[in-house]
Amino acid sequence: MKKVALFPGSFDPFTKGHHDLVIRGLQLFDEIIIAVGYNTSKQRYFSIEDTVASITTLFSSNRSVQVISYNSLTVDLAKKHNIRYLLRGLRNTVDFEFEKAIARMNQKLYLELETVFLLTSLEYESISSTIVREIHKSGGDISQFIPS
Ligand code: ADP
After folding, report:
1. Residue 120 is part of a domain; what is its CATH number?
2. Is any ligand 1 atom within 6 A of the Cβ of residue 115?
3. Measured from the CB, is residue 15 less than 6 Å from ligand 1?
4. Is residue 68 included in any domain, yes or no?
5. Looking at residue 20, what is its pLDDT?
6. Distance from CA of residue 141 to its chain's centroid?
7. Is the pLDDT score of 16 beyond 80?
8. Would the pLDDT of 41 be above 80?
9. Does some domain include residue 37?
């Protein structure tokens, strides 16, 4: 059976750190579905449509990567597609505590769901979508932080 992982996130915007996680995740999974979510507690800066379009273009030559958007609970999306694995990244202990809480709650909602964490590659550890957005808002050049 094909091993499929869901990589959910806001991706506002999709950074080199996210890209690296997908590439490395493909060594573990046959297919990765990048799911751009509407996060109710975060007002988006880049639109969902633009975000999905740019990530789709980025992986257009890679048939193992799909890009979708969703506005349901992540566990419900995983159940709907019969997906057993979530892929998430860890940059630091703050991410760890946050991700641990979400993963435990998700598993309560969907028992068979395993969250697989990859540590961020050192060179991308300090890239955060929040800071990239702030730079863009202030007219700065964000090209070194996002995949070309
Ligand atoms: P969310 O709003 O769900 O936290 P993000 O788009 O901020 O969505 O992040 C999605 C996932 O990518 C999270 O697991 C996060 O820890 C991870 N991530 C964020 N930035 C990086 C990075 N620079 N390197 C690797 N993983 C990252």
Report:
1. 3.40.50.620
2. no
3. yes
4. yes
5. 98
6. 22
7. yes
8. no
9. yes
User: Considering the domain boundaries, does residue 145 fall inside one?
Assistant: no
Domain range spanning residue 15? 4-137
Q: 82 CA distance to ligand 1 centroid (A)?
A: 23
Question: Do 27 and 65 meet the contact criterion of CB atoms below 8 Å apart?
Answer: no
The single-letter DSSP state of residue 123 is G
Q: Which residue has the tokens 């929040």?
A: 130
84 DSSP assignment: -
62-68 contact pairs (CB < 8 A, 24+): 62/26, 64/26, 64/30, 64/31, 64/32, 65/22, 65/26, 65/31, 65/32, 65/33, 65/34, 66/31, 66/32, 66/33, 66/34, 67/33, 67/34, 67/36, 68/33, 68/34, 68/35, 68/36
Give the pLDDT of residue 43. 86
- Three-class SS state of 71: coil
pTM score, whole prediction: 0.95
What confidence score (pLDDT) does residue 68 get?
Answer: 98
- Structural domain count of the chain: 1
For the CA of 87, the nearest atom of ligand 1: 14
Helices then strands, counting H and E runs in the chain, come out as 5, 5
**Is 142 part of a structural domain of the chain?**
no
Based on its alpha-carbon atoms, the radius of gyration of the chain, rounded to whole angstroms, reads 15
